[in-house]
Amino acid sequence: MLPEKPTPTSESLAELAAAHAALQREVDELKAARRALGGILVTLSRGLQSSTASIKAAVSSLLNHDIFWDPANQHEFLQAIDNSVGQMAQLAYLLAVTSRIDAEALDLRPEEYALQEIVMVARARTLTRWPQLTLDVNLADGGRPIRADFEYLTLALSLLLEVAAGRPNCRGVSVDAHEQPDGWRLALNDVDAAASQEVVTYLAAPGAGAPIGSGLPAQSTLQLYIVREILSRHSVTVSLQTDVSGKASLGLRFSSGPELR
Questions:
Q1: Does domain 112-255 have CATH number 3.30.565.10?
Q2: What confidence tens digit (pLDDT) does each residue in 7-57 have?
Q3: Distance CA 108, CA 148 (A)
């Protein structure tokens, strides 16, 4: 006689249902990540196409022998070419970082650095790309160092500064940093409250896909995806504080000497 098949119990059925639900969530998260990556690639593609078109238009104008361009016009065309090449180089770099993140190959090399040094380099990097921005800094002297990958944390802070200061009608952002008993707190002041709430909501959700389809500009979605992944690996928490006048402050808390993930 064949052995009788065991009768499933309510407990075993519940375990199977829970395992199936967990597997379905993982599949859904993987699909969302794939869609997010596709959206990021679309953003990069559009940026490269725009830069290429600008270079092509400027070069074609300079090569047009039927028109005499005075030195001022020639300089304007060359400036447009230089700006577009810079944008293409930045997009190519962001694509490389995005690919490393997606492949879980972001090679962080942590060492101890002064937070003030990282902030000043991030500020300089941002102003090189956006010289029209106003970025005032007020950094406390001394204090304990933080453990960080200098290149990637500087990149994350510079991209976050671009997003915070690049909003319509934003004249600039002030940055201050103060050491507290549990680590450093870095504040980006005078930011747009509504927009920053969307930024904080996204940055505080590790593992979520890029915020495609949100109210954020396409370029900002790519920047924030990279910012979130780098900050989460540095154990940096993000919060938003708003005063009675409606002014907002985007706060980043750096723990003292965490191990990078």
A1: yes
A2: 666 667 677 777 777 777 767 666 666 666 666 666 667 777 777 888 888
A3: 8
- How big is the chain, counted in residues? 261
> 111 is written with which tokens?
């060492």
Distance CA 57, CA 81 (A): 9
Residue 257: what pLDDT? 56
Domain 12-102 in CATH 1.10.287.130? The answer is yes
Q: What is the pTM of this model?
A: 0.73
Query: Which residues 6+ apart lie within 8 Å of 103 measured at CB?
Result: none
User: In the predicted model, is pLDDT for residue 123 greater than 90?
Assistant: yes
Q: What is the enclosing helix (H) or strand (E) of 180?
A: strand 173-180
Residues of the chain with CATH 3.30.565.10: 112-255
Q: What is the mean pLDDT of the chain?
A: 78
Q: What angle do CA 259, 102, 25 make, to 5 degrees?
A: 95
Residue 184 pairs in a beta bridge with 179, 254
